[in-house]
Amino acid sequence: MTETPDEEKPEDPNVFTQELNAKVARKLKAQKNPAPGIWFGLGMMGLIGWSVVVPTLIGAALGIWLDNRYPGTRSWTLMMLIAGLSIGCLNAWHWVTMQDEAMRSEQEE
After folding, report:
1. Beta-carbon neighbour count of residue 18 at 10 Å?
2. How far apart are CA 71 and CA 56, in angstroms?
3. Cβ(62)–Cβ(81) under 8 Å?
4. How many angstroms separate the CA atoms of 67 and 70, rounded?
5. Which positions ≥6 away from 79 have C-beta within 8 Å?
6. pTM exceeds cut of 0.70
7. 65: closest CA among 79, 51, 85, 54?
8. What SS3 class is residue 105?
9. What is the pLDDT along the chain (109 residues), one digit of tens a residue?
């Protein structure tokens, strides 16, 4: 008897069992570690924002203090504001990189 394209050959039982075990393992892992909700994502955005804002404001405050203490032709406020912003951006970049590595290692497991 000839087979039509719609008919499928029976798969190897070992392959089917392996696929089924992989699906069950993924489902159990998803139940143990539920996906974080929208509030978690918003909280992370806020955390990253504050990690940039706080050093920037500290730099600006230090710059204002230096301008009042040591007046001159250069603006300490602007220099410290840029330094604080740079430190904050580096801080946020470092934190995001660490989180990305943690997520990738979790996916590999």
Report:
1. 11
2. 21
3. no
4. 5
5. 63
6. no
7. 79
8. helix
9. 455 555 555 566 677 888 888 888 888 877 777 766 777 777 778 888 899 999 999 999 999 999 999 888 889 999 999 999 999 999 999 988 988 888 788 777 6
- HSE, side-chain direction, 13 A CA sphere, residue 26: 8
| Residue 19 in tokens | 């696929």
Residue with tokens 């203490």: 69
Residue 98 amino acid letter: M
19, burial (CB in 10 Å: exposed 0-12, middle 13-18, buried 19+): exposed
Total number of residues shown for the chain: 109
CB atoms within 10 A of CB 27: 10
Query: Which pair of tokens denotes residue 102?
Result: 């943690």
Tokens 């203090």 appear where? 65
